[in-house]
Write the structure tokens for this entry.
Amino acid sequence: MRKRTLGFVALGAAASIFLSACGGDSGSGDSASGAAFDQGSTEIVNASETTGGTLRYAISSDFDSTDPGDTYYAFSWNFSRYYARTLLAFAPAPGQESTELVTDLAAGMPEPNDDFTEWTVKIQEGLKYEDGSAITAQDIKYAIARSNYNGGELPNGPRYFESHLDQEPFNVYETDDPLAAFTAVETPDDHTLVFHLKESFSEFPYVLTQPQTAPVPVDADRGALYKENVLSSGPYKFDGSYEPGVKLDLVRNENWDGATDPIRTALPDEITVEIGVDQDEIDQRLVNGEIDVDLSGNGVGPTMKSQLITDEAAQANLDNPYSGALRYVNIHTPVIEDVACRQAIMYAADRDSLHRAWGGDSGGDIATNLLPPTLDGSDPESDLYPSEDNKGDLEAAQAKLEECGEDDGFSTNIAVRDGRPNDIATAEALQEALKRVNIEAEIQTFPAEDFFAQYAGSQDYVRENDIGLSVSGWGPDWATGYGFAYKITAGDAIQETGNYNTAELDDPEVNELWEEALRTEAPDERANLYEQIDTLVMEQAAILPVVFDRSMFYRSDELTNVYYSAAYMMYDFMALGVDRG
Amino acid sequence: MPPPLTEMLNYILRRLGAGLLLLAVVTAVTFWIFFVLPKWAGVTPRGMAALYVGKAPTPEALDATVERLGLDQPVVVQFFNFVKDLIFGTEYVFGRETVECAAPCLGYSFTTNSPVLEQLLSRLPVTVSLALGAAVIWLIGGVAVGVLSAVRKGSLFDRLAMGTALVGVSLPIYFTGLLALAFVVHSWKLLPVPRYVPLAEDPGAWFTAMILPWITLAFLHAAQYARQTRAGMLEVLGEDYIRTARAKGLSERKVIFKHALRPALTPILTIFGLDVGLVLGGAVLTEKVFSLKGIGAYAIDAIIGKDLPVVLGVTLLGAVFIVICNLVVDLLYPLVDPRVRIAA
């Protein structure tokens, strides 16, 4: 009996190894929806009005917060719309159309004054929370106040309101009457908000799409604990409490009125999120139909990607859109001070090998400018540092080295995040390319979690440790030149630590163009200014563009209404449904 | 003859006292690693605060976080506050709400703002389910295989069993676990995707969710136990008293199980106590591979996120388990091997 058991074990082990060696089957046949490769990037795939069922998400990490006022992750902004309606929203449409603004809670688009320093928005009447109480303009005003003026209680979200509103610093949690103290936003009645800004900000409506404009009544606010159970204004509400690192379940909110909501289909009956699942396991479950969506919105991991791109049967289930992000190398201006030396690096870089380091064509397109091709003002054809076959122009690089008095080259360090194979491969490719002109760059790896807080984004650390280069990536807060590039190129955005203008570019001409853009009404004129900024940043050689990143999404056959939203750089979660039939 | 009750109590109290001292040392060392090492590397309080304030924080947000988390206070003060809160409890203010954290208060997570003790307790059933289920399998399986191998030394079974044991010891969980998931769950669909269900809620679902993690974790440990048991048994079987027992005409079963196995089990019991304590403190890899939300998964997330209160909570809980398991094992020695007596 025992011998037989052992025999089975041996047989099982042998079979495992054999099957393992042969490689697994992705389990997907032809796409049941009849879709084609990358169709979801530009069209709605598997359109359906079928309601019901449970839409199952999984993610390897966790939300930064489920509190709409305290989150900055793209997937969290996308997902929070299930339970948090915002003043404005992005259009529920595939591809580039999704970057256009539409109303959500608002009754119409915001009206600016002549110089864009005052914006008035009216909200719809008859809107309700999950408990049946009315949503008012005061609740939205308070939500904005608590998200930006909270004394560090809610630290995760962006600070656009704090930066632009004409408001003295205060803390909602140390004020008896926070609504009265928050003078930068007026509420003349229950359905009107008037925003007073410090200076012109023509792109202010984009800020009103952020989850921080989701209403929160003063009495419902529990500070950092509010995320345990957010009071819903959307089609779903929390089923029990959010359990950090474990799960979040949503069920229908019976007090949501679909007639007031232009962006949510609310097809599934329930939504589940399993948190803390290993990425490879998520990918496997996705392909097997055991979950429906990877919540992170980053696409499949490298292991599954390498399987899928060679699996003919899986092609119809794949989408390969631009992620909206630029992968690049910062050239730290305080460390490599002479612009000619920085330009030498730009000329010497072998963009072809950098592209291959990032995974070749499926990983993205070679980038020679700053703004991703999906943004107005981008000119992907522009290339200030051209070379044959993108292999680098060594003669031009040497000439630049001589111009900055470093004829024999120089040495510096490249900072790179540990555990990020593409970043490390990028650093290695750059290191090899720079060697050709005697620029010795030593690669130093740092923990990814502390990279900006303590190393590449710390001014002191960079100077003391001669960090001349660092491998990085950036995606837009919203799909315009400002939403993408301000924080990585504007002098005002430089921080002592946690610095994302990591190159520390503080160029007066660039800064002036940013200010001008914020005063400019016409989008095409702003796009023109963004293009000029792009060119100036390239001339200053503060950022070495590597690739315009592409994601690889696996689209389940059971998922309905699937399309890529350029606004969130992933599938539009609000449109999704399931059809298990 | 069993030791007198007072003697036994005295022994237990002394061991618990030593355990408390160990917990204090573990806490102090964890504090030191968390705060002093980064300072040596030149990290400022603002640099530490930047870990907990999301993307592109303002200097004001950083300062507020430094103050809120007490990162600018001397390590000694922070350590004292932690111990004080642990013993006496404290209050936390969130927004306009004051929340009581009763003793033993392990504080709130820096990253999720959830109470550490509550999180640990909610995850404990997962880890206990994993640890105890796997421990039963590895103990019974490992000892049984070890005994049979010793009795049938040199046989085909012995060679196969020891060969498999060598493989088991050599293969890490993240290999065997992923292999098991890939084939048993995803390819052959013999078991559903492991999703923990409380035992009281649905025993069947609990069992089917845990069986694969149990076997995977047990495979690693059972191999070690089989080899250890075999070695111990072979040593004991060569003793004079075994020969005497056989000469007296005792059945082979009695010789093996009553006279040979019991003394061979003493070292097994020692490592069993340590192993169970360690696994209860968090089977990090097993929980991560099978996406089980237990103490181990909580620990690894906290370490990556530099979440000191959680790291301290998990470390303390792990140390408590080690202390308790070792104490239980020590108390069990006399039952397993009558030659062992507890010394007062």
Q: What stands out?
A: Residues 1-30 of chain A have pLDDT under 50 and may be disordered. The longest strand of chain A covers residues 322-331. Chain A touches chain B through 68 residues (CB under 8 Å).
